[in-house]
Write a structure and sequence with these properties.
The protein is about 30% helix and about 25% strand. By secondary structure, the chain is α+β, with helices and mostly antiparallel strands.
Length: about 260
């Protein structure tokens, strides 16, 4: 455990040399990690898929997280685990990974829900989409484009099928009140999968086209930090009446309830 100003990795690390690494991020509420087992399952899946081998098991990580929260005296927070490719002798070959765990203050602001968000679409398929890698090159490169379009974030699509936002999954509510989320070419978010498990909503994975998006009654994003965030405009076109929809509101309330009962 070191102060953030003293934390460091060597410049030979593959995260610096080649952008090679994975991470996961979960939040804590009153010193209680939210959906931690789900996050750790995804974390170990990403490790395996990226051929990164570590010896720390899930229970050991949980103990580290608890000690980190106590040392920082930070109950409402976001905790990030990053695993890099390690110190490579030639800047290309995999070696023993480095593990970095950090904590920042974070408390969800419910007012964000009513403000909503505006999106702009962009043709792009993220590489290795099923893995939570540290590669956010394209989304950062697109930031001037997003601002030029008067949007808050970008929604990727590929071959006319919508995918995901750089840090969020996307859902639409169809004209038949079906709750749909893309089934392919995306990272399976923790809140996304939790919503798919809610029996009271007709939520399912589908191939969703841009036409389906344009015809939707409601659109919303999901992520660890955003919970459920209504989308009010896509490419300047208003979704519904430009306010949070009834189904979006109900799903938001159910998700927050499930987080508190975790």
């Amino acid at each position: 455990f070191v102060h953030k100003n003293d934390a460091k990795v060597n410049i030979t690390d593959l995260a610096i040399q080649r952008g090679y690494g994975i991470f996961d991020f979960f939040k804590t509420i009153n010193f209680r990690p939210v959906f931690l087992d789900n996050h750790l399952r995804r974390f170990y899946h990403s490790l395996s898929a990226m051929r990164l081998e570590i010896t720390i098991d899930a229970e050991a990580f949980k103990q580290i997280f608890q000690e980190l929260m106590q040392k920082n005296n930070l109950g409402d927070s976001g905790i990030r685990i990053t695993v890099t490719g390690g110190y490579s002798p030639d800047g290309y070959t995999l070696t023993s990974p480095n593990i970095l765990i950090s904590q920042i203050p974070f408390k969800y602001d419910p007012a964000v829900f009513d403000k909503g968000i505006n999106l702009v679409t962009y043709k792009y398929q993220r590489q290795l989409p099923q893995i939570k890698t540290i590669d956010y090159l394209h989304s950062i490169w697109l930031q001037p484009f997003i601002k030029e379009k008067g949007a808050d974030d970008v929604l990727y699509h590929h071959n006319s099928h919508i995918r995901e936002c750089p840090r969020s999954n996307i859902f639409i509510v169809s004209e038949h009140d079906e709750v749909l989320t893309p089934s392919h070419g995306i990272l399976e978010g923790i809140n996304r999968n939790k919503i798919l498990s809610f029996s009271e909503f007709n939520a399912k994975e589908e191939k969703i086209t841009l036409d389906h998006l344009r015809a939707s009654k409601e659109v919303f994003m999901t992520s660890t930090t955003k919970n459920v965030l209504p989308v009010f405009q896509v490419n300047g076109k208003m979704i519904g009446n430009g306010k949070p929809g009834e189904i979006t509101q109900a799903i938001f309330e159910q998700l927050v309830k499930s987080q508190m009962n975790e």
